[in-house]
């Protein structure tokens, strides 16, 4: 796959993928809402752990017309494709309007300009069909005075020329790659994402040539895996990513149930439970020794549709995870405990994928 | 080929089975420590496991959870290998068909979480699943059993369970019993005496609670096994399921699936059937009796009809009240008993299952549901059977209401003989004088009509006349152990003069045939239930692999004619016809008599 272009036409092969795509297209077609191309999908300010330390960050979800792969069907857990514009592509001026809205937001919400800029597109920022060369250059110029920029992309679009728009302006540059898992079989059959770990390794190498880094995004517990299978998949994935040169950060994120997805259908029917926060903590704790920053940002923690424990301890465990993100100190997890750990241990010990979820 | 699972007994869809591991296990049962999961194919390619004789190996699988769409199930379907060790295949309830090529010993449902807890969804899943997998394969419902739901799960036809959910609930602080689910912290005392509960309340932890839950589940399964052996699981479920709405809804949903239940329900049992709720009216045994009495049976007496109330003592004729009725009628009337929940019982069928096997809760107050049911059966009965006179020797209240309803509906003229109570001197004298002038029927007529009525009931409309149309029968021995013999020596090959053809079995009120009788039956116009066997001479029983074909309408307990290239035999079915054909293990039919041909 590493030579290929990520067009739906090329991706669409294999029986399992056909079925996943067919179902996902059908599910997505239920969503009718469209979005204004002059507004970003979301924007917020936070703090992030970077290779240079903890920094204030401005996170932008750019509305670029959505993910091309999602139009073919796409990933089983991803509902962001719904957040796209009518017609499917967004002009340069509209994209720059979105950036303008984000800068206004930052000026309003933060005292200082953020040192870290993170741009996600629910697709590939480096795919020129989503974000043209002119826009990419203009955005690089807009943020040239910041310290670091992260842009999201599939591994196929990672190449030296595009990244040099940023690195040659003196920005520390990272590409966020939605690898989801280091296990090809899980990425293909459970997530329905069609590139291989080898493509990710190649992207890490390409980025290095432009003096950029790679931040790997992992997905804990795609559909069809039991809790223990999901846990093991993440433990090994974190290690395998961290072992790749130039992959300096791994963001391991528990799956949440998004509307208009296959995961949503399974969850509704009783066939899916988001991972336990104890599982997230267990991965972070057990991989604390790896040579990379490992973080996690559970979305919707404590709710039925997000990663959760028993309801009593969710906030405390979430706090420990966020604390670990900033300090990378596994002892933070010794500070939290709950009776429900015994239930979680039982699930990890006893749950098989044919009898899941064992506990809601 | 299910080498490692065998069904030994059936009680409706529920089965008493044997998981033939080393050592073997009687099911329904927990299989936690007897199952090995060879792993998921979603996350890893896997070799066919080695397997071993002491463990049920769940073959490498792609489990499709509840909510997985058909396209995905189809495209990721697993080709299960055919292996020679005890194995189970994982299937989705509505897509089990595709996995049956492997001939696994058991099938595990991957989508139980989607239907356990929802009565109609559960019913649909069970019907689709059991229809697709071989009848003699074990059925494993993993990760959902609790002490409260497992009786209904077994009643629906599942064999294998585990304690994983029950343990999880314990660790979550829920104390489970067959009647409920309690917050552990709210329990001042533990309502159980199992090993885990034999400690002071304040020392009882959630881990202990998990152990208790598993113990309670195991104990409940032992109750279920005992009930299946006794043929009394339904009576139990009618009561126990009432502790949870969805469980009650579930067995009612199955009652609406008469075909599914009927196929699996024996036509005779020697166990008591307790009618303690109106749900009993909807039982297969009750519905089947009512149906056969009103569509197969025909009255052959010319005498007036006397409707009488049922008695607690069974058979009715042995009760004090019926003895009194009998002294008043003196063979001058055809006596039919009215009863909830059976409907109406003509005197010839008073021994026939379940007429002498049921017991009901008697308060004298009839519910509207009971009245409607009995009135409906009586009406159908009277539409089919004409009488010169109809006498209602029933007490005022429910019984009389019912008769009056039917009388109006069918525009009949019924004579009522009970002013107060049926056994008062006045009532009995009324009954006797009402019948004055009526002729008595002789003993021979009574005996012949009884045998014919039973044949109608067993085989179908008109069977009583067709069955022995070509022979001249005579009776020996005394009711209720009548022996039916052939008085006509002219009939070739039927054992000569006075050869015995059949015996009336007093415990069930059915006919049991001799070889000669079976030949007469097979050659008659009366419908025969046939089992076609392979080229062998059965001894004692016919095993399922030896069955070539069997009539669809054969039920457990049915009298069957067994024929093959080498043998002619008669016996009693141990499986339903479809099960005989589908199964590769187990006894299909007992053989009473057999001859090499």
Automatic annotation (TrEMBL), chain A:
SMART domains listed in its UniProt record: Elp3 (SM00729)
Annotated spans, Disordered: 1-48
Signal peptide positions (record): none
GO molecular function: 4 iron, 4 sulfur cluster binding; metal ion binding
Domain Elp3/MiaA/NifB-like radical SAM core: 57-286
Cofactor names: [4Fe-4S] cluster
Keyword line: 4Fe-4S, Iron, Iron-sulfur, Metal-binding, S-adenosyl-L-methionine
InterPro entries xref list: ELP3, Elp3/MiaA/NifB-like_rSAM, RaSEA, rSAM_sf
Domain of life: Archaea
Protein name: Archaeosine biosynthesis radical SAM protein RaSEA
Protein's organism: Halobium salinum
UniProtKB/TrEMBL annotation, chain B:
EC number, as in UniProt: 2.6.1.97
GO molecular function: archaeosine synthase activity; transaminase activity
Pathway named in the protein's UniProt entry: tRNA modification; archaeosine-tRNA biosynthesis
PUA domain segment(s): 529-596
Gene Ontology BP term (one): tRNA processing
Pfam family, one: TGT
Keywords: Aminotransferase, Transferase, tRNA processing
InterPro entries: Archaeosine_synthase_1, ArchSynthase1/Queuine_TRR, DUF5591, PUA, PUA-like_sf, PUA_sf, TGT-like_sf, TGT_C2
PROSITE patterns: PUA (PS50890)
Family the entry assigns: Belongs to the archaeosine synthase type 1 family.
Protein name as annotated: Archaeosine synthase subunit alpha
């Amino acid at each position: 796959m590493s030579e290929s272009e990520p067009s739906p036409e090329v991706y669409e092969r294999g029986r399992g993928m056909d079925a996943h795509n067919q179902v996902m297209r059908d599910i997505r077609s239920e969503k009718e809402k469209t979005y204004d191309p002059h507004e970003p999908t979301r924007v917020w300010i936070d703090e992030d752990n970077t290779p240079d330390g903890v920094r204030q960050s401005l996170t932008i979800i750019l509305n670029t017309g959505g993910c091309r792969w999602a139009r073919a069907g796409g990933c089983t857990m991803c509902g962001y494709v719904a957040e796209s514009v009518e017609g499917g592509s967004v002009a340069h001026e509209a994209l720059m309007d979105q950036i303008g809205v984000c800068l206004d937001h930052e000026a309003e919400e933060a005292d200082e300009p953020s040192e870290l800029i993170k741009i996600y597109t629910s697709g590939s920022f480096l795919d020129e069909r989503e974000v043209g060369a002119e826009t990419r250059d203009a955005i690089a110029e807009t943020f040239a005075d910041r310290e670091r920029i992260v842009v999201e992309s599939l591994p196929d679009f990672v190449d030296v020329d595009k990244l040099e728009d940023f690195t040659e302006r003196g920005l520390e540059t990272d590409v966020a790659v939605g690898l989801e898992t280091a296990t090809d079989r899980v990425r293909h059959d459970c997530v329905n994402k069609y590139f291989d770990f080898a493509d990710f390794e190649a992207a890490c190498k390409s980025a290095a040539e432009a003096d950029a880094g790679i931040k790997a995004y992992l997905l804990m517990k795609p559909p069809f895996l039991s809790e223990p299978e999901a846990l093991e998949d993440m433990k090994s994935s974190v290690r395998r990513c961290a072992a790749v040169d130039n992959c300096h950060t791994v963001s391991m994120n528990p799956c949440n149930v998004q509307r208009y997805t296959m995961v949503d259908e399974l969850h509704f029917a009783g066939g899916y439970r988001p991972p336990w926060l104890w599982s997230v903590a267990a991965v972070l704790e057990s991989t604390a020794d790896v040579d990379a920053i490992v973080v996690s940002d559970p979305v919707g923690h404590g709710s039925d549709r997000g990663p959760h424990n028993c309801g009593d301890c969710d906030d405390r465990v979430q706090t420990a995870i966020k604390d670990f993100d900033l300090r990378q100190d596994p002892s933070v997890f010794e500070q939290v405990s709950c009776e429900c750990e015994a239930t979680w241990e039982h699930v990890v010990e006893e749950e098989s994928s044919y009898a899941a979820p064992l506990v809601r | 080929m299910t080498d490692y699972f065998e069904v030994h007994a059936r009680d409706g869809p529920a089965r008493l089975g044997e998981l033939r591991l080393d050592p073997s296990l009687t099911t329904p049962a927990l299989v936690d420590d007897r199952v090995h999961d060879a792993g998921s194919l979603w996350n890893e390619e896997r070799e066919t496991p080695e397997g071993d004789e002491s463990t049920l190996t769940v073959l490498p699988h792609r489990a499709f959870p509840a909510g997985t769409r058909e396209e995905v199930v189809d495209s990721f379907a697993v080709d299960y290998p055919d292996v020679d060790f005890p194995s189970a295949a994982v299937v989705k309830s509505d897509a089990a068909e595709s996995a049956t090529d492997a001939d696994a010993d058991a099938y595990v449902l991957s989508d139980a979480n989607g239907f356990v807890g929802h009565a109609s969804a559960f019913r649909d899943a069970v019907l689709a699943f059991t229809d697709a997998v071989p009848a003699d394969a074990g059925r494993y419902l993993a990760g959902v059993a609790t002490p409260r739901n497992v009786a209904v799960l077994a009643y629906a036809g599942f064999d294998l369970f585990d304690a994983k959910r029950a343990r999880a609930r314990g660790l979550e602080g829920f104390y489970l019993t067959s009647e409920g689910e309690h917050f552990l912290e709210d329990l001042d005392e533990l309502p159980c005496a199992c090993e885990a509960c034999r400690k002071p309340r304040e020392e009882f932890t959630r881990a202990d609670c998990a152990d208790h839950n598993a113990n309670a589940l195991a104990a409940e399964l032992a109750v279920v096994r005992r009930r299946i052996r006794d043929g009394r699981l339904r009576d139990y479920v009618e009561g126990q399921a009432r502790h949870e709405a969805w469980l009650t809804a579930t067995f009612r949903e199955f009652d609406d699936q008469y075909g599914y239940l009927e196929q699996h329900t024996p036509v005779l049992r020697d166990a008591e059937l307790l009618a303690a709720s109106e749900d009993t009216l909807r039982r297969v045994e009750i519905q089947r009796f009512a149906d056969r009495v009103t569509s197969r049976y025909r009255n052959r007496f010319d005498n007036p009809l006397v409707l009488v109330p049922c008695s607690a003592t069974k058979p009715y004729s042995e009760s004090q009240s019926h003895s009194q009725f009998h002294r008043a009628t003196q063979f001058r009337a055809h006596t039919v008993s009215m009863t909830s929940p059976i409907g109406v019982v003509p005197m010839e069928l008073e021994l026939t299952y379940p007429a002498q096997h049921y017991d009901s809760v008697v308060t004298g107050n009839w519910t509207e549901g009971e009245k409607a049911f009995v009135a409906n059966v009586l009406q159908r009965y009277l539409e089919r059977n004409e009488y010169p006179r109809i006498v209602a020797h029933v007490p005022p209240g429910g019984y009389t209401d019912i008769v009056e309803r039917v009388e109006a509906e069918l525009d009949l003229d019924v004579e009522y003989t009970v002013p107060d109570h049926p056994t008062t001197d006045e009532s009995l004298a009324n009954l006797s004088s009402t019948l004055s002038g009526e002729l008595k029927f002789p003993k021979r007529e009574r005996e012949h009509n009884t045998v014919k009525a039973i044949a109608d009931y067993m085989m179908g409309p008109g069977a009583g006349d067709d069955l022995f149309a070509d022979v001249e029968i005579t009776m020996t021995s005394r009711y209720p152990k009548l022996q039916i013999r052939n008085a006509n020596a002219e009939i070739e090959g039927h054992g000569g003069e006075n050869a015995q053809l059949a015996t009336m079995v007093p415990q069930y009120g059915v006919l049991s045939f001799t070889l000669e009788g079976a030949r007469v039956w097979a050659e008659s116009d009366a419908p025969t239930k046939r089992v076609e066997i392979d080229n062998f001479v059965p001894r004692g029983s016919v095993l399922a692999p030896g069955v070539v074909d069997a009539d669809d309408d054969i039920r457990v307990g049915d009298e069957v004619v067994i024929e093959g290239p080498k043998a002619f035999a008669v016996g009693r079915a141990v499986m339903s016809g479809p099960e005989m054909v589908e199964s590769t293990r187990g006894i299909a039919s007992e053989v009473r008599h057999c001859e090499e041909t």
